[in-house]
Write a structure and sequence with these properties.
The chain is of the alpha/beta class. It contains 10 helices and 12 strands. The chain has a single domain, classed as Aldolase class I (TIM Barrel, Alpha-Beta Barrel). Helix content is 31%, strand content 19%. The chain has a 12-stranded mixed beta sheet, with helices on one face.
Length: 320
């Protein structure tokens, strides 16, 4: 797929559910109550098969909410793994239920996963997630490594006055375990846009914090990509860290993704409030391709050159 700005679209983020067992402060608004929306398994499979076989989607990321709460997750992954044109199937999770599921998911065809870890301090972790247990996520990461879902990528949302003093510590913890540790700027999304204004740690400060402990060398192939990766060397440590800076270093001109929400709506740009429904083309057994193609074309051609910052939905609804 080529959008109206000439960008090749080959990445899909598919939200399986908007339900989550945590309520992270930069993802879930204070007054939000989970709808428990879950996409139909057959509908999800047919959407991915259609987009991959006919429209060049090669990279699939399963998201939520929390995708590990999706009951037919393992069965769906096994089915998705049969789609020859898919090059990778990845998943983003908070890790709370990962310890028990890592090995079956690896055996079922999952390529690798990303795990959110914003603090190594149990009290801080519980506060930012509104009730999460850090030991569960840490055990989940270890289980994923043991299952071969590597390299496990650890996502850290850097937040001023919360975890900006832990940046090097979290990097070291992950690097010692062979993980790729990626630090993300807070994005001004929907009803939680104020979090970015109040707690943004810009990429420059993230790199300064890392450079105090490690020697960083930018990896040439990643420069200019959504994630700029750095080879890390330090005392008894080698590995890779990355910085994703959508707020201070926007990469809209290189965006290659679309999203489909758990309610079956296409979101072409995470910062644009426009979405188009696909659910009406699913009759419970078959996806009606002609109508779906027309909606997809409209969505792709309307994908803005630059995110207009007009999103009204929160990340838990959009799919992280």
């Amino acid at each position: 797929m080529i959008d109206g700005c000439g960008r090749t679209i080959d990445h899909l983020r598919l939200s399986l559910t908007d339900h989550c067992n945590l309520a992270c402060r930069y993802c879930v608004p204070n007054n939000a109550s989970p709808c428990g929306q879950m996409i139909d398994e057959d509908f999800a499979f047919e959407l991915v098969r259609w987009l991959s076989t006919h429209h060049g989607i090669h990279h699939l990321r399963l998201t939520g909410g929390e995708p590990l709460l999706y009951p037919p997750l393992l069965r769906l992954i096994k089915r998705l793994a049969t789609i020859a044109s898919l090059r990778e199937i990845t998943l983003t999770t908070n890790g709370q239920a990962l310890e028990q599921q890592a090995a079956p998911l690896a055996d079922g065809g999952l390529s690798r996963l990303n795990v959110s870890l914003d603090s190594l301090d149990a009290e801080r972790f519980a506060r930012v997630t509104r009730g999460g247990t850090i030991e569960r996520t840490l055990r989940g990461i270890e289980a994923a490594i043991e299952a071969g879902l590597t390299p496990v990528k650890i996502n850290v949302v850097a937040q001023k006055s919360f975890n900006d003093d832990e940046i090097a510590d979290i990097a070291q913890w992950g690097l010692l375990r062979g993980c790729v540790v990626r630090f993300l700027e807070v994005m001004p999304i929907g009803p939680l846009a104020h979090v970015a204004h109040e707690h943004l740690v810009p990429a420059s400060e993230i790199l300064d914090a890392l450079s105090e402990r490690f020697t960083l060398t930018a990896i040439s192939g990643s420069i200019g990509q959504p994630a700029t990766d750095y080879a890390v060397t330090g005392k008894c440590i080698r590995g890779v860290v990355g910085v994703i800076a959508p707020t201070t270093r926007p990469f809209c001109n290189r965006c290659r993704r679309i999203r489909i929400t758990s309610s079956g709506r296409i979101v072409a740009c995470v910062h644009d409030g426009t979405s188009l429904g696909l659910r009406k083309f699913w009759d419970g057994k078959k996806l009606h391709i002609q109508g779906a193609n027309e909606v997809l074309l409209r969505a792709i051609l309307a994908k803005p050159e630059e995110g207009p910052r007009q999103q009204t939905l929160s990340m838990v609804t959009l799919g992280g």
